[in-house]
């Protein structure tokens, strides 16, 4: 993935190529499908059972566990019952009855906007609904739908009683409020919460900020990342359990919390340790292309090695209780380098499929069509990753919700797979093969997600303004860069730990300092081969180069990541790093706060932070063409058709010379446009970019194996 700084003359980033791996597998018999699929209507699909619309054909929905053709009927407005978003008006979605909204509800998000008449914004993030939505009220002489009632504690919103916070609670109603817990161990009406705000798990209950009696007398309603929840009140830190302090996030009442809710920050005085690592890489250049198969540096109990596995093999692995994330790593032993799809060459990306939980639920199927809203899929995998591929879960909004409290313990499974295998059953695809052989391992991160974590970093000084491993730590420009990088990552609760500087051999400097091309990303191209210099270890690896060239990008490419996500804990693979241009490191004048326009060190830090975000699993919030977005619901989007005007709007989606959205479009396009100031926006504008990170972006980053 690339981060491009546009010139005054052109503005281009790589445009997504239609991917062979998203085409359906055509069939005439079950024997032509992979394990766990049947041939239905000429297409290989999961047999009858489904848990989301994404597992069904276009024009079908998943209803009662079966894919059915949508019979939308009359278009429904806010508040109407539904079982598919296709039944609701175009700007609404169907909140399904599986969330507690019996009969379904055509809903409108009110997280950033207002609600229409006769509806009210209800914050249901702390319930299975997990959203802030417009909910109907009784209105003028009306009534709630059958089985629903007006919820007094949520302003009269019509809801099932199970979603309405109870009022008039006493301390005896929640004697265990804030206590450590495991799923199912809390008192009636409470839920065992995990995540950034609840390390070790804590018993809480949903509440309403407008009604203090929805919390017991020993609790206070506080807005957390998981919605409004009751936290135990306190007088001093001594009255809170270990790991929690006594603070006043609302400005008045003190509660036991990990920190001021919503403000992720590394502890005061936390400074990284800067060290020299000597020289990395062989003394002389390898005589040919190398594609190493590396091993993880994690402790043995976190690594499950399965050795050589062929495409189509079923791999079963174990997940312990309260695991925070799973990473499936596949490294080619012998596999096709590329295929041809619709006449274009396409790297043979490795893509595990049919990821199945212990209950038999398929949470990732590479054949399934993607929904418009990517945040609703449990797992998202869209990357160009030949030879070495990593699937890390959770990385979507739905995945974060699914994994709250720990991933399901037990036996999981997936199928080894790559594009070449899928090409065999895809129209207009040549070069397919089912003989791909991969070294497969599964890495499991144990323990509930923490509110903060340490991140170790390595800088490989390929072409970095005269810096060496010996003098880098004393450079004022490097120190400024690290200060800014630390500030950007502190938003995600990530603190810089040990920062190691490596020299590289003279041959590597000569070959890679100015030789990296953003247009050549194959396993044997310079970018991938440079990454093989990375030492083993659990570090975020940055390769500082003088220049990254491109003939397809009209501007200057300043950062280039190996793949999303990177192979964390594995050094020396063809994707073990991110290239960052250090051309501006010593430029300008740096003082005061972050200044991307005048301080070159800040600019380099921003580029590094962006590429590191990719490594830890983040996608661009909005891609260049303004019609594709990341899989997180709390990041703003910037639609080309909504956020540009005139001739630029007319060229949105054009087959040649399309319009590319810029930060100025997203920050000046009205209430429906945003994200130009997010760290992961595709375009860097020093006058507007701010490097913001959302709560969900931080949660994904902390779920990565790098976060220790």
Notes on the structure:
This protein is an alpha+beta fold and 708 residues long. Among the domains are: 171-257, no CATH class; 269-285 and 452-617, Collagenase (Catalytic Domain) (3-Layer(aba) Sandwich); 296-446, Jelly Rolls, CATH 2.60.120.380; 620-692, no CATH class. Helix content is 11%, strand content 25%. It is built from ten helices and 36 strands. A seven-stranded mixed β-sheet has the order 1-35-36-33-30-31-18. Strands 19-29-21-26 form a four-stranded antiparallel β-sheet, with no helix packed on it. A hairpin with a 2-residue loop joins strand 4 and strand 5 (66-69). The two termini are 25 Å apart. Mean pLDDT is 82; it is low at 1-26 and 260-265.
List the helices and strands and how they pair.
Elements: E1 2-5, E2 38-40, E3 43-45, E4 60-63, E5 66-69, E6 93-95, E7 105-107, E8 119-123, E9 132-136, E10 149-151, E11 157-159, E12 191-193, E13 202-204, E14 219-224, E15 227-232, E16 245-247, E17 255-257, E18 273-279, E19 303-310, E20 314-319, E21 323-334, E22 338-341, E23 344-347, E24 353-356, E25 362-364, E26 388-393, H1 397-402, E27 410-415, H2 419-423, E28 429-430, E29 437-446, E30 453-461, H3 476-490, E31 494-503, H4 506-512, E32 516-517, H5 526-531, E33 540-545, E34 548-549, E35 556-561, E36 578-581, H6 600-615, H7 640-643, H8 646-650, H9 663-667, H10 695-703
Parallel strand pairs: 18-31, 30-31, 30-33, 32-34, 33-36
Antiparallel strand pairs: 1-35, 2-3, 4-5, 6-7, 8-9, 10-11, 12-13, 14-15, 16-17, 19-29, 20-27, 21-26, 21-29, 22-23, 22-28, 24-25, 24-27, 35-36
Helix pairs in contact: 3-6
């Amino acid at each position: 993935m690339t981060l491009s700084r546009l010139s005054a003359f052109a503005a281009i980033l790589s445009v997504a190529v239609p991917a062979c791996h998203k085409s359906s597998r055509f069939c005439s018999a079950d024997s032509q499908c992979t394990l766990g699929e049947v041939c239905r209507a000429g297409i290989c699909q999961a047999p009858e059972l489904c848990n989301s619309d994404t597992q069904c054909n276009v024009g079908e929905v998943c209803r009662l566990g079966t894919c059915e053709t949508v019979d939308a009927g009359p278009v429904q407005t806010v508040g109407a019952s539904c079982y598919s978003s296709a039944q609701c008006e175009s700007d609404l979605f169907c909140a399904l009855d599986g969330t507690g909204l019996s009969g379904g509800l055509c809903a409108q998000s009110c997280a950033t906007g207002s609600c229409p008449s006769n509806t009210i914004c209800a914050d249901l993030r702390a319930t299975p609904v997990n959203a802030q939505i417009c909910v109907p009220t009784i209105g003028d002489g009306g009534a709630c739908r059958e089985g629903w009632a007006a919820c007094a504690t949520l302003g009269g919103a019509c809801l099932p009683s199970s979603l309405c916070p109870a009022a008039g609670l006493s301390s005896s109603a929640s004697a265990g409020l804030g206590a450590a817990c495991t799923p199912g161990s809390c008192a009636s009406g409470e839920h065992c919460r995990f995540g950034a705000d609840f390390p070790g798990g804590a018993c809480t209950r949903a509440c309403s900020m407008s009604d203090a009696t929805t919390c017991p007398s020993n609790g206070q309603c506080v807005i957390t990342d998981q919605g409004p929840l009751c936290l135990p009140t306190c007088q001093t830190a001594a009255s809170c359990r270990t790991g929690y302090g006594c603070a006043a996030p609302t400005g008045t009442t003190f509660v036991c919390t990990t920190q001021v809710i919503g403000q992720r920050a590394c502890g005061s005085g936390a400074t990284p340790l800067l060290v020299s690592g000597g020289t990395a890489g062989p003394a002389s250049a390898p005589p040919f292309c190398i594609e190493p198969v590396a091993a993880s540096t994690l402790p043995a109990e976190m690594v499950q090695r399965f050795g050589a596995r062929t495409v189509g093999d079923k791999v079963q692995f174990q997940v312990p209780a309260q695991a925070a994330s799973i990473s499936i790593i596949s490294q080619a032993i012998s596999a096709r380098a590329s295929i041809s799809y619709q006449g274009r060459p396409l790297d043979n990306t490795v893509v595990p499929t049919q990821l199945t939980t212990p209950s038999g639920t398929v949470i990732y199927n590479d054949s399934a069509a993607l929904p418009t809203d990517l945040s609703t899929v449990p797992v998202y995998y869209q990357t160009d990753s030949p030879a070495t591929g990593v699937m890390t879960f959770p990385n979507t909004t739905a995945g974060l919700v699914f994994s709250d409290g720990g991933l399901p313990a037990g036996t999981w499974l997936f199928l080894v797979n790559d594009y070449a295998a899928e090409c065999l059953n895809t129209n207009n695809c040549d070069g397919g093969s089912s003989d791909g052989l991969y070294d497969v391992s599964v890495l499991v991160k144990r323990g509930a997600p923490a509110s903060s974590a340490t991140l170790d970093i390595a800088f490989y000084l390929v072409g970095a303004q005269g810096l060496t491993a010996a003098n880098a730590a004393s450079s004022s420009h490097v120190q400024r860069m690290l200060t800014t990088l630390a500030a950007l990552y502190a938003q995600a609760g990530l603190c810089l730990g040990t920062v190691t500087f490596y020299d590289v051999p003279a041959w590597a400097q000569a070959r890679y300092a100015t030789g990296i091309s953003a247009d050549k990303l194959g396993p044997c191209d310079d970018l991938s081969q440079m990454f093989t210099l990375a030492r083993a270890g659990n570090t975020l690896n940055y390769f500082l180069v003088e220049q990254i060239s491109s003939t397809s990008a009209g501007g200057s490419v300043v950062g280039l990541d190996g793949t999303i996500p990177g192979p964390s804990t594995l050094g020396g693979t063809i994707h073990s790093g991110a290239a960052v241009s250090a051309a501006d490191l010593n430029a300008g004048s740096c003082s005061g706060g972050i200044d991307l326009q005048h301080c070159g060190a800040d600019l380099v830090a921003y580029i590094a932070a962006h590429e590191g975000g990719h490594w830890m699993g983040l996608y661009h919030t909005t891609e260049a063409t303004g019609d594709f977005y990341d899989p997180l619901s709390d990041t703003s989007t910037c639609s080309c058709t909504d956020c540009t005007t005139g001739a630029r709007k007319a060229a949105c989606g054009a087959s040649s010379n399309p319009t590319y959205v810029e930060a100025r479009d997203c920050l000046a396009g009205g209430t429906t446009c945003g994200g130009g100031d997010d760290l992961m926006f595709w375009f860097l504008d020093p006058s507007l970019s701010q490097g913001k990170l959302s709560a969900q972006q931080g949660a994904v980053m902390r779920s990565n194996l790098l976060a220790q």
